[in-house]
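Researcher: Next sequence.
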Amino acid sequence: MAEYIDDLLIESLAYGGSGIGHHNGKVVFVPLTAPGDRVRCSIARQKKRFAEAQVEHLLVPSDNRTAAACPVFGQCGGCQWQHLPYSEQCSWKERIYRDFMVRKLEVEPEKVLPIVPSPQQWGYRSRVQFKCLNTPKGFQVGFYRRGSHYVIPVTNCPIIHPFLNQGKDLLRSWISNSRWAKFVPQIDLAIDDQQRVRAVVHCLSPDVEDFVRHLKPRALEAGIAVFVQPDRNGAPLHVCGPLELVVEVDIPVLRLGYGPGGFAQINLSQNRAMVREVVGTLISNPPGRVLDLFCGMGNFSLPVARLAQEVIGVEAYPRSIEMARLNARLNEVNNTTFFAREAFGAATHFARDSAIDLVILDPPRSGAYDVARELVAVKPARILYISCDPPTLVRDLQPLLHNGYRLAWSRPFDLFPQTHHTESISLLERV
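Model: Next structure:
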């Protein structure tokens, strides 16, 4: 039999987005709530020190609640905080991030600088993965339901660029009622700083060549680039349109191309803000030899190369390294070299020739703990760590802060409005 809490006051928010209340001496996490809410909730999971619950009824709404813009908010797993005003979202992100840094790393509170809000609260996403399912009711395009692999159909996602919503509708109309609909599990859409749209359609059909011929005239008429991904690991098939999308960073502008399967930040204006932050902190003391790990197509490598004597970029995805080399040539940046290899071991390898002044780390959400431990031995003068996950950031910084480094500053950036996610930049200096 389900256990209920008849009247729970939500007092604060936790990393992950859930509201926090207390009941019988135990912390209770409740998704989709706001500080000040009073709710009736059912216990979903009981642990020794905490419980997880679901809202059954909102008894008294918080004064800080606002109406969600999306009709499937709370069902779709993409957003956690559409019910909070944007100023509240930023306030809580900064508070939660500072708590991570101060409580877990014991850094001084003033070392955590104020959050940089996103200029756009809506329509900011430049990349999106739509999940697809062919059903008796038609070809459904949307996102997974929270905590499941059930596809929630979406007509208009308010956090993605409007042109991507339009692209989704076009692709759905081209695929729906076709013999390929049951073979399409996913559609990836992206837009660049020149407002060009690219679609990568995953199609596991045995007659994928016919599917390409089906899409090509429609895509040419619509003016969007289309690729077809016939399997999970191979290169996508180019149907039509430009091979790369282009993002713009730094002043004077650097134009950086990235191909399908490559990485670019999903919030282009905030990506520019992060590049400005990195370049700005290095201007007064330009680095000599720089190692950029997880460099991608050169998002930080090339702007930093304008200040540095030399930049070495390392990335495991070979096609991103090809793009980084091409971006360096096209932007006439001549003091960079790029290598397709794993990040771990790279610092040790390149430090044999000459000392490394600055290491830039921009790892995936899983972090780079092995690399952080390696840097303890390599001893670069400075480390700039760009993180999209505060828990792994804290884990990775611990061996460095315990072995000769101090945190100069750390700043959160909001790249993901309406969600709990927080990006950050941290500068470490060797003592």
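Model: The two ends are 58 Å apart (CA to CA). The longest strand covers residues 50-60.
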